[in-house]
Amino acid sequence: MLTTLQTSYTDTRAGDLAWQLGGEPLPALAVRDLRLDDGPDRSDGVRGTLQLRLLGASHQVILAAGPGDCLETVACLPGRRTPLPARVAEQVAGWEYEFAARIEELPPHVFAARAQELLALVEGHPRALAGIFPGDPSAFTALVAHCEERRVHWRTWHAYPQEGRLVCTRSSLSLRTPVGASVGADGHAPAHVGGPDGPQAGW
Questions:
Q1: Is the predicted pLDDT of residue 173 greater than 80, yes or no?
Q2: Is the pLDDT of residue 185 over 50?
Q3: pLDDT at position 196
Q4: Between the CA of residue 18 and those of 39, 60, 181, what are the distances in Å?
C-alpha cells in the first residue's frame, strides 16, 4: 500500500531518529492493520494483529498477538537524543525481540533509483505500507512485514534525500519458550544495546 502523506515535509535528519520499545501510540498519518493467522490447524502459531503506522516523523509498529503486546517506535521523539542503536536484543511479554539499524549514504542519482526500487516493492506487497512526503518523490517512510509460524518480522526504510541518507531497520518478535529465563520486575529482561558503530546482524 502506497500513499501520499498529507503533511508538509520538514527538514529532519537521519541523525535525529531515536528508538523506543513500549510507550503509547502517537498520532498517525496512515495506518494499516494486518491479521496474523496461520490457519485453524495451527495451535502454536502467532495469532492476532500487527498494525503498521506512519508518523509525521517516521513509524510505529504495534503487535497485539501471542503472549503479550509490543510497540516499537522509530521516530524523531521530543526529549530523546540517544542515537539510533545498531542492535538491540530484549525479552518482553513472552517474546524475544531483536532490532538492528544501519544508515546508507548514497550519491543523488543512486539514492533516487534506490528510492523508486523500494517504493515499487512496497506498492505491490500484501503486508506493506509506505508514505511519500509532498514535494520530493524520494522522501518517504516504508514498512514491510512478514509472519512465520512462531515469528513476526518487519523491515523499514526512512529516506532523507536532502542529505543522501537512507535509514534501514530490521525488527523481529519470536515466541519465547519459558526455560527459567531471568526476567525483571517490570517483565523485561536486561537489554543488550550496540552502539552506532557496533555489529549489525542480518545485513
A1: yes
A2: no
A3: 34
A4: 36, 12, 28
Element holding 108 (H helix, E strand): helix 108-123
pLDDT in tens, 32-81: 999 987 444 444 567 789 999 998 878 999 999 878 899 999 998 777 66
Ramachandran quadrant class, 25 (left: phi over 0; alpha: psi -120 to 50; beta: rest): beta
Contact between residue 18 and residue 36 where contact means Cβ atoms under 8 Å apart: no
The answer to whether 36 and 65 are in contact (CB under 8 A) is yes
What is the C-alpha separation between 181 and 65, in angstroms, rounded? 21
pTM above 0.90?
Answer: no
DSSP-derived 3-state class of residue 114: helix
Residue 200 CA to residue 203 CA, distance in Å, equals 7
Which residue, chain included where needed, has cell 530490521?
170
> Are the C-beta atoms of 173 and 95 separated by less than 8 Å?
yes
Give 150: exposed, middle or buried? Use CB within 10 Å, 0-12, 13-18, 19+.
Answer: middle
